[in-house]
Write a structure and sequence with these properties.
The chain has about 450 residues and is an alpha+beta fold. The chain has eleven helices and 18 strands. It starts with a strand and ends in a 5-residue tail after the last strand.
């Protein structure tokens, strides 16, 4: 008997680059919009003016940080899904990580830049900071938690522009961020990459290229989210069998599938699926794997663009049905790397990349030139398989979550043998931590 285990990790890098007036910064700096999905490079001048900055995405409930996070997560997921030129590529990211890092950036914003960030994030810095301070502290106090979140701020000690002590203190206080002072050298890049490696248990060994830093760098902000959990429901060796997966492009692939009987069935007008829970010591489960399969008459593209909304997962989970679910899902592994300026611009955040008009005066005294965001890099990794640490089987999960299989029961069959959406969900806070789409299998 082997214990099922899922490893997930996500890293986000948000770098504040000093674009000084008078020639210290490039007049029209180029940033890569998405280096591994085939999108073209976009200049900051082109980037800022491709979107109407007065019409950002607005969450329905202002200053509700959880709703803002869910709205941002859904929008980022949809925009990133749409951004890929190669439509058969798998998609995986942690909107939670991106939101956390941008929230730290927002601490330094002022004027219109702050207003734009508040609109897109759906919350002001006070509410965001309070939420993340509590969230980080709760995770630190729970030594059994499957989730870990870490933040760091790397400051260029040679910069003519000083990062304000008030900003540093806020990042430390609310986000438990480690603060480092160093030079913009390959050696510092190595240290940043080592930090990423350590905080993600080696799943993301690097986040920056060796030549990523230069003298125009003011600071680098990093957020790392790492999730490592065992299934409550064990997989036996005879529950693993090859099955055909129908890829996005119409091709097929024979890959191993994991088969089990679950007790939590989810369904709405456009999709069906199941929930599989993670072990949480002797406590009620806090985290769950949510598998969402579009109905036969709904393509994965239509599902993501038309039917996936901020409250989709919450709505499905709030209406769990206690059916016996014959569930089958593939073993899979996904690695992604995204550069997000174009995606964030499409969401209404183009102003933060505008070297002439971005306003981060709460972060630094920028009298020598404006401070703006240069690059936002996101790396994510996931493995889903049957392996893991052996432990006693936990069956209380079905009882405490109202998913015990009754004596007389209908059976539902959910086979994830074509493109599907999946998420790692925090039950306690009612928020998705990771969202992805599995579209293409490899032998």
């Amino acid at each position: 008997m082997r214990k099922g285990k899922v490893f997930l990790s996500a890293m986000l890098l948000s770098a504040m680059i000093l674009s000084a007036l008078g020639g210290c910064g490039a007049a029209n700096q180029t940033v890569s919009s998405q280096d591994e999905t085939g999108l073209h490079d976009v200049s900051t001048e082109e980037l800022v003016h491709t979107n109407d900055l007065t019409k950002p995405v607005l969450p329905e409930k202002k200053n509700d940080v959880k709703y803002g996070l869910k709205s941002f997560s859904a929008e980022l997921f949809k925009k990133q899904y749409e951004a890929a030129e190669d439509k058969k590529e798998n998609v995986f990211l942690s909107p939670f990580s991106v939101y956390a890092a941008l929230s730290m950036v927002q601490l330094g914003a002022d004027g219109e830049t702050r207003e734009v960030m508040e609109n897109v994030l759906g919350c002001d810095e006070k509410n965001e900071s309070s939420f993340f301070k509590k969230y980080m502290n709760d995770l630190s106090d729970d030594n059994k938690s499957s989730l870990s979140v870490a933040n760091s701020l790397w400051i260029n000690e040679e910069s003519e522009v000083a990062v304000k002590e008030n900003y540093i203190n806020k990042v430390r206080n609310f986000y438990n961020a480690e603060v480092f002072y160093d030079k913009p050298t390959p050696e510092t890049t190595d240290k940043i990459n080592q930090w990423a490696n350590d905080k993600t248990k080696g799943m993301i060994p690097s986040i920056l290229n060796p030549d990523a830093l230069n003298e125009n760098m003011l600071s680098v902000l990093l957020n790392a989210v790492c999730f490592d959990a065992e299934w409550c429901r064990e997989y036996y060796e005879d529950e693993i069998a090859d099955r055909t997966f129908n890829n996005y492009d119409g091709s097929t692939c024979e890959i191993p599938f994991m088969n089990s009987t679950e007790g939590s069935y989810i369904e709405d007008d456009h999709s069906e699926g199941f929930i599989k829970y993670y072990k949480n010591g002797d406590e009620m489960p806090r985290y769950a794997f949510v598998a969402i399969l579009p109905k036969e008459d709904v393509t994965i593209d239509d599902y993501v663009s038309q039917y996936y909304q901020a409250d989709t997962i919450n709505s499905l989970i709030d209406n769990i049905q206690s059916f016996k679910v014959e569930a089958s899902m593939p073993k899979y592994e996904i690695d992604t790397k995204y550069e997000l300026p174009a995606t964030l611009n499409a969401m209404g955040l183009g102003l933060i990349f505008d070297k002439d008009n971005a306003n981060f005066r709460e972060m630094a005294d920028d009298k020598h030139g404006n401070v703006s965001v240069n690059r936002v890099i996101h790396k994510a990794h996931i493995e889903v398989d049957e392996h893991g640490t052996k432990a006693a089987a936990v069956t209380a999960i079905d009882t405490v979550t109202n998913t015990a299989v009754p004596q007389k029961i209908e059976t539902r069959v959910v086979i994830l043998d074509r493109p599907f959406v999946f998420a790692i969900y925090d039950y306690e806070e009612k928020i998705p931590l990771f969202i992805g789409v599995y579209k293409t299998a490899e032998n």
